[in-house]
Specification:
alpha/beta, six-stranded mixed sheet, two-stranded antiparallel sheet, 7 helices, 30% helix
């Protein structure tokens, strides 16, 4: 770039401006049962959501840990049959809860700092299940630097139900036109990475929030940020009515379903 060329202008909002200063971080846990007060936390994976060069949501780098079951907690053998976790596997390299949380939380805090956000907000499929196990582990080890909001979440069950009419993760992925391999499911890393893809697919499909215009992000015109992120969306029925900014065209047109492939 020569001195005479102007600096490229950013035409999208920073992550810190997207969700009131919160950074979405997809979390998946694998556990020894369903009760976070009595069953052990066995695996945790976190995928911070990032932005690409066009300002679209993309999954960031996953950070994960296997955990040593905390003393006094139970493991239901049926849960191990579902997850396929071998607690005695020589390459499991499990960490104590405090060390595992330190490892994952450090990566999350780094992502929060990168995007100038205030805090992370947990994204999950049945998100409160993951959050409850996470909060229980934080309480057990008296962790003082939990980067996540203590009770607010973004749940992809709700998002996928609205976007695709599906609430089961595997079916939602397929409805969104994304890959799913049942043989790899019930691994915290795999499920977190797939849930991150699903969240990004739905969030990108939606566009900018209602009330945000191209001028708000420094674009010179609506084309700079795309028709679905422009000031209005024309209805397809010829009525001349418009839809609010950020509402996908298939919603504005009241088609009842998203375009083929999500």
């Amino acid at each position: 770039m020569t001195q005479s060329e102007p600096t490229p202008q950013r035409t999208f909002r920073r992550m810190a401006e997207r969700f009131r200063g919160y950074l979405p971080v997809v979390v998946d846990v694998e556990t020894g049962g369903f009760d976070w007060n009595k069953h052990a936390l066995l695996e945790i994976a976190a995928v911070p959501i990032d932005l690409d060069e066009q300002g679209r949501f993309v999954p960031g780098e996953v950070c994960s840990a296997h955990l040593v079951p905390a003393p006094g907690l139970q493991i239901d053998p049926k849960s191990l049959e579902i997850t396929g976790i071998d607690l005695d596997h020589p390459f499991r390299l499990a960490k104590p809860e405090k060390e595992a949380l330190d490892h994952v939380f450090a990566a999350v805090r780094a992502a929060v700092k990168k995007h100038d956000c205030q805090r992370a907000i947990l994204v999950g499929h049945n998100a409160h299940f993951d959050l409850n196990f996470l909060n229980a582990a934080v309480a057990r080890v008296a962790h003082k630097r939990n980067p996540f909001h203590p009770f607010s979440v973004f749940d992809t069950v709700t998002l996928a139900g609205v976007a695709y009419g599906q609430t089961v993760l595997a079916r939602a992925m397929q409805a969104a036109g994304l890959q799913w391999n049942s043989a790899d499911a019930h691994s915290a890393v795999y499920d977190a990475e797939r849930t991150a893809e699903l969240f990004c697919r739905i969030a990108n499909q939606w566009g900018m929030p209602v009330g945000v215009t191209a001028a708000d992000v420094g674009a010179t015109n609506a084309e700079a940020v795309g028709k679905d992120a422009g000031a209005t969306l024309a209805a397809s029925d010829g009525s001349g009515e418009t839809a609010p900014v950020g509402v996908p065209s298939w919603v504005a047109q009241d088609t009842g379903s998203p375009p083929s492939g999500g």
